[in-house]
């Protein structure tokens, strides 16, 4: 396992922590429709599980866990900044997100990735997200988003083959 410092966020978190999560999100998700301001992050921190990850004092990525919907499906998104990929951070963030979703009662797990994010799609596939649920384009975007579901719960258990860190 890696030595990551994880900072959980909430709506009352200091602006500097919210800004770090915002930076990682906006670098990895460059679509204009998904660009978030600090108030957007603060609002999301009040309804989702948001975490920022640091190697020492250096921001390496962030996560989002959207709580389960009525059908029991939660969304887990792990993001690792490009300069920090390939070091196991994605797996750590993914496993933390998966555990957070399951602790909140999720019976199914999905993720969402920009179709243009080849590294993110490879990571998701290796992590077991092989069932395409939806593909769509938001107003103003030039690329599609894809929602993927874990094929089975067992495919994402920490004891199974680890996905490579490219998220």
The helix tally amounts to 4
Structural class: alpha+beta
Described by its quaternary structure, the protein is: single chain
Averaged pLDDT:
88
Across the major sheet, the strand order is: 1-2-3-4-5-7-6
What integer value in Å does the Rg equal? 15 Å
Total beta strands: 7
Order of helices and strands: EHHEEEHEHEE
Rounded to the nearest angstrom, the distance between the terminal CA atoms is: 16 Å
Low-confidence stretches: 153-167
Main beta sheet: strand number and arrangement?
7 strands, mixed
Percentage of residues in helical conformation: 25-40%
Shape: globular
Strand content: 25-35%
Report on the architecture of this protein.
The protein has 167 residues and is of the alpha+beta class. It is built from 4 helices and 7 strands, in the order βααβββαβαββ. It has helices at 15-28, 38-47, 89-103, 118-126, and strands spanning 5-9, 49-55, 58-66, 73-80, 108-114, 129-136, 145-150. It has a 7-stranded mixed beta sheet with strand order 1-2-3-4-5-7-6, with helices on both faces. A hairpin with an 8-residue loop joins β6 and β7 (145-150). The longest helix is centred in the middle third of the chain and has 15 residues, at 89-103. The protein is globular, with a radius of gyration of 15 Å. The protein starts with a strand and ends in a 17-residue tail after the last strand.
